[in-house]
Design goal:
Helices cover 60% and strands 11% of the residues. The protein is of the alpha+beta class. It has 2 domains: 97 residues, no CATH class; 54 residues, 2-Layer Sandwich (CRO Repressor), CATH 3.30.240.20.
């Protein structure tokens, strides 16, 4: 094994990575700006998958000489375009939205946990109690409802005094 190749192969590779990487980054930023705030908002499962795929694609463009900038830009544009199309349809079709997006789930109500729902959603009572305390409440008896939102966050609705 040639140890020097582990740290440096040639200047051409370094210059290519710098130029293509910079341009690919600019293309990605432009596409994300064009696609709107949704791409950068709280992530549901599908948004997370697209975000990871964008990162993986950018990495491939940067490091694989076999992928030209134009091909990489098309791949980035395709991912963002498909996400835009999916969200466009899901906003206009309730049935399609239910198919691709999870629904909020009630995990506690009237000061008591919904035990089966906690099991189904793989949540512990401690995780829910932590969310309750982060809202400045003492415990489960202080809430009317706790909801696991479709983006994975937990909403707490306090009891009215």
């Amino acid at each position: 094994m040639n140890w020097s190749e582990m740290f440096y192969q040639d200047w051409t590779s370094i210059v290519r990575t710098a130029i293509v990487g910079g341009l690919a980054y600019v293309v990605l930023v432009l596409f994300v700006r064009i696609s709107g705030k949704r791409t950068l908002g709280k992530l549901n499962a599908f948004d997370l998958v697209v975000t990871v795929a964008l990162g993986s694609t950018l990495s491939s463009i940067l490091l694989q000489k076999s992928i030209a900038l134009a091909e990489g830009a098309v791949a980035l544009g395709l991912l963002i375009g498909l996400q835009y199309l999916l969200t466009f349809i899901s906003v206009r079709s309730h049935g399609f939205a239910k198919m691709v997006r999870s629904q909020p789930t009630l995990v506690a109500r009237n000061g008591a946990f919904c035990s089966q729902t906690l099991l189904d959603q793989r949540l512990t009572e401690d995780e829910v109690l932590s969310s309750i305390r982060s809202q400045g409440l003492q415990g489960i008896e202080d809430v009317d409802a706790v909801i696991l939102e479709s983006d994975g966050s937990i909403s707490v609705i306090p009891r009215k005094s």
